[in-house]
Amino acid sequence: MFRRHGLRATAAACCATALLATPALAGSDGPGAPGAGDEYFPGYGNGGYDVSHYDIQVRYQPADDHLQGTTTIVAKPTQNLTAFNLDFALTTKSVRVNGVPAQFSQAGMELTVTPPVTLPEGSLATFVVEYEGVPSTVEVDGLTPWIRTSDGALAVGEPEIAAWWFPSNDHPRDKATFDVSVAVPDGTEVVSNGVNTKNSSLAGWTTWQWRTTKPTATYLAFIGVGQYGISTKTGAFGQPFVSAYSDNLGELEGAAKASVERTPEVVEFLSGLLGEYPFEAQGGLVSSEGMNFALENQTRPTYSHKFFRNGANTSVVVHENAHQWFGDSVSVDTWRNIWLNEGFASYAEWLWSEKQGTGTAQELFDYYYGRHPADDPFWQVLPGDPGAGAVFDAAVYDRGAMTVQALRNVVGDAVLQDIVRTWGSEKRYSTGTIEEFIALAEQRSGKQLDELFNTWLFTKGKPPVGEATGVPPRVNHVMVAPPKAVAELDRTHALLHEH
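== Aminopeptidase N ==
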């Protein structure tokens, strides 16, 4: 997936009136950190507490993009907490901690809250935040990820979007379950993660309620508001399969449906490779405007209409659903580890091509390896440490996928499958690092893989031909005839990298 990113401002004081906090006990109490410690995005996330659940209730008016809401956060302090931060960009009206009004200040994307009494480590805590704003007009550090459309909005983005519609601990390290309730004018649809539990209408407004019961990273929680045709059917493994297509897709509607409606087939295929599907529902949403990318929102990937301009495109469906394992169930521990998301999702496209008979993974490896000469800047981006400005660079995707094929060449098909299935099982609903994956690969294969991973992930330049690097001798030159799958893969990845 691709989305813009930027560093957040750290918390700063601004005026607020509320109860004073009880003084901290020297040496034992203190405020939570204003960031989760991510080296690429230091201000993202927060320390001092762990969230278990978000209850998000918002009222949204498409006519003027006005949103007002109340979010209740169920959390557990991980220290004796005298103050804490939430990541949030809209205007905060009030904050209650354990039912009592709390002092707060807000600057940039940091909402700093001082509860009236210290929150004991390990206790049950609730944070209730009331807020409002016009999300499309809110810019922080040059970012405005909220997408306003002619008939509604899309809260879709990576690595940031949550702060434009609900306060949170906005980092993949702190996953939680979600209840999302959105009231919109009658005749407007709302799509979110998981399962639609209830709809109700009153006084010209319809409230849509969605629930996801598996741990979810905050950037993977989303809403799509507008004019959509929504269908719920039985998908793979008897689960709900929810698809939503904008009413304004026009001539692209057929191609979009011919692609996204294959999601259950894709999920069955990926389950055979990666292990049990980790969530409670499946599906997809296709927008008709506002988006130039696709995103692996948990249980419900969201696609730009542009992916279907040239006909059906199952490659992007495979890519975003592969993220349900690599990215959603097992998320990056920090954003430096993005190869674990994009390299494996891109490689899943190659395996789908292999299944469809449009080009084997090795043929695609050969093509992309030969396509980029040694002096191509493509080889100067390190998939294992691309830098904050290149998290979604083409090399993270394509060189990342080549890395997986190189690993396959060295360890063999059966061992590679064992590695990825073990990774998904042992790391389910948590996070992982590249170093942990390498250690697992060496343990399961019984091979020393330092040269392979150092060369492909952490060394600038075109990896040399050799047994230890997984590059067979025949790929020294550009292939004359690329596999049939290349045209679709290129179209897909061009959009995945597009702003």
